[in-house]
Design brief:
Length: 581
């Protein structure tokens, strides 16, 4: 929670894979989210609604962040915001969903506590109640916009002033300096994970347990007092405008009369809105939920009508295509031309653009490919090539590896590799920075996972997918990406998984079938995969450079080797090809 522009959306963007648009002007920001990550009472229409975002902190731990609009929201009145927040809080509480804590964001760059910020903070205190404040973290943001000593002075004023944060600190609230990065966001969440507890807000207790209406709650009473103060201010201004109107009428100043009439209409309109806001506070939990349900039902009906119209359009287009197909008799010729083109493309893949590729020896089947930035690894039964800057060749020589098998390159020069010593037993090893880049994954492997590991694949943003012998898997992929990869398959069916830039991938299953979604990247590879699929040719090994939009390595059945790598890596690929086949 916090005022508009305090950094709530930016904080969530450091924790969640969902796409979030950050507000950069005086208007409340909008969230772009195709579908909600968790149960929520509203569609994700922006910060004028309550939205829930899933944050996968480990393969076994998910944290849900609930974002709320501020009481100074430019799109909605304070009463509408309070009704929205109360609707979500009471519905979730009634459905046995409990909060673990609240983060209240405040810009340390603000010169002073503005009126809207004070009101927001006061309503926040009434909404929480004194008992829940021990699970509140008061987070200051935008330290990069102030001198550090000046920021410390403002922080001290917040803590020492009772009407600001002083009273809340005495009730058990804590402060935190958020530095606007992923690590800082993780440390802030860790405060709640360290001692997991649940809380009941005073608003939830009063509306659900005590069956009070919204206007009878502490938060509702506080807001009504503010609304009455605001109404009196506009009444005073209206009286002043009426006096000015008398003077304008006496002087017969038509321009002044017109201007004052416009001002009077504006004042009366504002007073009417304030009266409506006061009236809207007179609502209990059941009616609040009923109105929200009716609102969602109306939106659902609109969506269903739009889907029906779209389906009718698709049906018309499908009928047109079917009619067109019947009218043309060239299907057979087109199919023959397509077959010739595919065979020609396949031949180009075999032969290459410069020379006829050598036929492989009986031991020439590649077993592993890896590619990330300037690191490259190519391995067959008869030859291994480490490429430039892999850092593995020296380690293999130092530790007397008899035969390398697989390598997976992770972020920041980290890696995981498998090899066999002279005793032919398979062993796994990792780079020196692996435990720092992937601490959760390292713990899993260090606690007995190395002996069971079958294969592992790394992607961008420290993502990974690994399978153990027996079919058990672990990953930290976003749920929607994993769903696209597996479709109707299980994790244990995955044989090869190449993770590329953003959310692109190529997956090969244990039965030899494969599919891909390159997300409009790796355009040359897209054509190659379509050709292989058309000809029923299987994929033996593949690697996508997740730091690039186009680089890849591909080895398929029928001795097909294809690549798009940097000029400095071309010689590595050619040398390995010549020595391995």
């Amino acid at each position: 929670m916090g005022v508009t522009g305090a950094g709530k959306s930016t904080f969530i963007s450091h924790c969640s894979d969902d796409t979030i648009e950050i507000g950069r002007n005086l208007n409340g920001c909008k969230f772009s989210q195709a579908e909600p990550s968790y149960y929520t009472l509203t569609e994700s229409l922006g910060t004028n609604t309550v939205s829930v975002y899933a944050c996968n902190f480990s393969p076994t731990q998910t944290v849900y962040l609930i974002d709320t609009p501020g009481f100074d929201d430019t799109n909605r009145s304070d009463t509408e915001v309070l009704r929205e927040v109360a609707s979500w809080l009471t519905a979730s509480y009634s459905n046995k969903i409990r909060l673990s804590g609240i983060i209240y964001f405040h810009r340390i760059s603000d010169l002073r506590m503005q009126g809207s910020a004070k009101k927001n903070l006061f309503l926040f205190q009434k909404l929480c109640g004194s008992e829940a404040l021990k699970n509140v973290v008061l987070a200051t943001t935008m330290w990069d916009r102030v001198n550090f000593d000046e920021g410390l002075g403002r922080e001290k004023q917040l803590v020492e002033t009772q009407e600001f944060w002083g009273w809340m600190m005495k009730q058990g609230s804590r402060i935190f300096r958020h530095s606007n990065d992923h690590l800082s966001a993780r440390r802030l969440i860790d405060i709640f994970l360290a001692k997991p507890t649940t809380i009941t807000l005073e608003l939830q207790n009063q509306m659900v347990n005590k069956h009070l209406s919204l206007e009878q709650t502490d938060a509702g009473i506080t807001l009504e007092v503010e609304l009455l103060k605001e109404r009196k201010r506009w009444e005073r201004r209206l009286r002043e405008a009426q006096e000015e109107m008398k003077e304008a009428l006496e002087s017969r100043n038509q321009d002044a009369i017109a201007a004052i009439q416009e001002v009077q209409r504006d004042y009366k309109s504002r007073m009417d809105l304030l009266e409506k806001d006061r009236h809207d506070l007179k609502i209990n939990m059941e009616k609040l939920h009923h109105e929200k349900y009716a609102e969602l039902e109306a939106k659902l009906k609109t969506q269903e009508e739009a889907l029906r119209a779209q389906q009718e359009s698709y049906d018309i287009e499908l009928q047109r295509l079917r009619t067109e197909k019947k009218e043309h008799q060239e299907d057979l010729e087109a199919a023959e031309r397509r077959e010739k083109l595919v065979l020609a493309a396949l031949e180009r893949l075999r032969v290459g653009s410069e020379k006829q590729r050598p036929k492989p020896s009986k031991h020439g089947r590649p077993v592993s490919l890896a590619l990330r930035a300037d690191r490259i690894f190519l391995c067959s039964d008869s030859r291994t090539h480490w490429g430039v800057n892999s850092g593995l060749e020296a380690k293999a020589e130092r530790e007397s590896w008899y035969k390398s098998e697989t390598v997976a390159f992770g972020g920041n020069e980290s890696y995981v590799a498998s090899y066999r010593n002279i005793d032919q037993r398979k062993r796994w090893t990792c780079g020196a920075s692996f435990d720092k880049q992937y601490p959760d994954l390292y713990k899993i492997l260090h606690d007995g996972g190395w002996n069971k590991l079958d294969f592992i694949s790394f992607g961008p943003k420290r993502r990974y997918f690994m399978r153990f012998h027996g079919g058990e898997t672990r990953d930290n992929l976003p749920s929607r990406l994993l769903k696209r990869i597996l479709k109707s398959r299980s994790r244990g069916d995955v044989k090869i998984l190449a993770l590329g830039r953003d959310k692109s991938f190529v997956v090969v299953f244990r039965d030899g079938k494969y599919h891909w979604d390159l997300d409009r990247k790796y355009k040359d590879l897209e054509d190659k995969l379509l050709t292989l699929e058309e000809c029923g040719t299987g994929i033996e090994a593949i690697a996508l450079d997740c730091k690039s939009l186009e680089k890849y390595l591909l080895f398929a059945e029928d001795r097909i080797l294809d690549w798009d790598v940097s000029p400095s890596q071309v010689s590595s690929v050619r040398r390995w090809e010549a020595e391995a086949f």
